[in-house]
Amino acid sequence: MKIYTYGHPVLRKKARSVQNFDIEIRKLCKKMIETMRSSTPRGVGLAAPQIGISLRLMVVEHEPGNTLCLANPEILSSSNGQIDQEGCLSIPGVYANVKRAETIILRAMDPIKKESIEFKASGFLSRIIQHEIDHLNGILFTDYFDDLSLLELSDNTTIPEALIRRFAK
Ligand SMILES: [Zn+2]
How far, in whole angstroms, is CA 126 from its chain's centroid? Predict the structure, then answer.
C-alpha cells in the first residue's frame, strides 16, 4: 500500500473511531503490518491515515516479530519525559529529537481479539504509540518545532515543499 507523505490533507484530518470490528479491520491490520515492514527504512509503527484511511487504527512493531494492532487508542495517564530521535514514514529522511512521555497507560481495542485491552508502555514502545496517536489527531512530529534547523536530514533527502512552507509562516 502507498504511504502518503507530508502535504497530503489526509494526514491533517482527525481520524474517526473504528466502529465495526469485522474481518475488514483485521485484513487492514495485516496490510498495514506488511506496508510498515516493507517500507525503506523498515517502519516500527504506522497509522491508518498514512495509507489514506482516516480511521483510529495503528500498528506497531517495536521489536522484530512482536506486532501490535490497536484501534481507538486512548492514553489514560503518562509520566516523566524522554528525548530521543524520531522519524516518520510520511516524512522520509527527516529526523529530530522529540520529547515524549516516558511511560503511558494505554487503553485500546484489540481488533483481532475484539476486546478492550489496557497496558503500560515505556521507552521506545511508549514513544511509537504516542507518535502514532498523534497521526490519528492530524499531528506530525515536525509540528513540535518552529525552526527548520532543528531537523536532521539523512543523505539525499530534500525537505518537502509543504514542510518548508509551514516553517516559512
Ligand atoms: Zn509517523
Answer: 11
Going from the Cα of 113 to the center of ligand 1, the distance in angstroms, rounded, reads: 25
Report the separation in Å between the CA atom of 130 and the middle of ligand 1, taken as the mean of its atom positions: 10
| Alpha helices by DSSP H, 39-137 | 123-136
Peptide bond into 92 cis (omega under 30): no
pLDDT tens for residues 16-68? 999 999 999 999 999 999 999 999 889 999 999 999 999 999 999 999 999 99
User: Is residue 74 among the annotated active site residues?
Assistant: no
Domains of the chain, CATH where assigned: 9-82+100-142 (3.90.45.10)
45: CA distance to ligand 1 center in Å? 7
